[in-house]
Each structure stands twice: as C-alpha cells, then as structure tokens.
Amino acid sequence: MARDTSTVTRWLQKYRTVGLFGLLEIKKAAGAKRKINDDAIAALIQELKTGKGFSSYGGIVEWLKKKHRLDIDYGTVYALVRYLLGEKLKVPRPQSYKQDQKLVSE
Description:
The longest helix is centred in the N-terminal third of the chain and has 20 residues. 6% of the residues are buried. The chain is 57% helix and 0% strand. The termini are far apart. It has a domain of 47 residues. It is mostly helical. α3 packs across α4.
C-alpha cells in the first residue's frame, strides 16, 4: 500500500470504532468566525446601494466603528466589500476648471 504501518494501524482502529462511513468521512475545518455580523453587513449593503455611499474604504471602517461599534481592519473591510459583496467605491475623477463645457458635451 506504500503507507507506513502506523498509518494503516490508525485506519484499522478508526474502522473498528466508527465503521466504514466514519473512515470515509471527509471532515472540513470550521474556519474563523466572521468579524462582521450579519446585521452590520445588511446595513452596509443598504448604505452602499444609496446614492451617496462612501468615498473610501477608510470611511467604511469609521462608519462601522461609529454605527455598529465594530473595530475592523482596513484589509478586512476591503476584502468584504470588494470580493464578497462585489462592490467598487466609485468616485468621479476631478475635472479641470479650464475645460470648455461646449466641447465636452459634444
């Protein structure tokens, strides 16, 4: 079998105690608990869907701290908003005051 005898012995002990289904069961780690609760995520989605939104991810960090009393890192907020929620913080680019408005509209 190309396995160490201790591995085969461990498999046999597990088979004797929990049977074939227990031996074949693939266990998955639970992972870390989410730092932002579901209520805060729902409120954040609502806030992002309103027209004003946020101008920066740091603004979201401050909003979560003030509104929901959550101390969340910038990177965690960025990953949540950008990848889990699929949102981008869009702000218009600055325009020069020297632009001719007639040419821009054409």
